[in-house]
Amino acid sequence: MRAWPMSRDMPWSGLKVAAALLCLVFWGVACNADQQSGGEAMPTPQAIQLPEPALSGPVSLEEALALRRSVRGFSDHPVTPAEIGQLLWAAQGVTEPRRGLRTAPSAGATYPLEIIVIVGRAEGLAPGAYRYAPGRHDLIPVLQEDQRQSLARAALNQSALLQAPVTFAVTAVHARTETRYGRRAIRYVDMEAGHAAQNLSLQAVALGLGSVVIGAFDDRDVAALLNLSSGEAPLYLIPVGKPR
Ligand SMILES: Cc1cc2nc3c(=O)[nH]c(=O)nc-3n(C[C@H](O)[C@H](O)[C@H](O)COP(=O)(O)O)c2cc1C
To answer: Is residue 177 assigned to a domain?
Structure first.
């Protein structure tokens, strides 16, 4: 007898529970997608939208692999916003928006990497530095004026950094991966930087551009120049441009 009144209530309470569960699921998905896309739900007013990345091109993957060579001498030919956008997309672009998954694999999809483009000579983009927002495929200005001399100084005066029209700094927020993987995160994050850098290097070849991955620099000087917070570390500098 006691079961009956309860079961009369059941449709309502069942509905309430189902609705609450549904809300939780949606909230979880939204939070997860937001975190995976770098917490980029709100576009900033000064963001610069990049052209849509191309999903096909004239150079095969095999040709790009065979042709890739470190390039350290660049002409002063400017790069285009389409080239910058394509290179950023290759490194960290979102390829599955529903779950925020990207071109490069990431341990547990924790996405610790960030990319900052240091622009010296680009069509329609003022010299300075810009942070890539993968979820929106846009750039947030972070520094004004040509920073190439300071960047080269922070990296043993490597001339590739002076000559290249743009340099991509791959940085990492280790805490994003550490919360799930603890000490093993250090290795995972370094591996991810390799994935992203290789994607970018091969995309450069496919665009008729050259690049070199640079690991020899003063961490503190690069972090200070790029105004990184204490939880963000520079891992790679990748100058890109037309080979001289
Ligand atoms: C982790 C790492 C760090 C590197 N650091 C530098 C660097 O600071 N400066 C540089 O000119 N090349 C750097 N390189 C590029 C190597 O010198 C280059 O890949 C190597 O000579 C092989 O030539 P290849 O890239 O043309 O195949 C680095 C490569 C790796 C993988």
So the answer is: yes
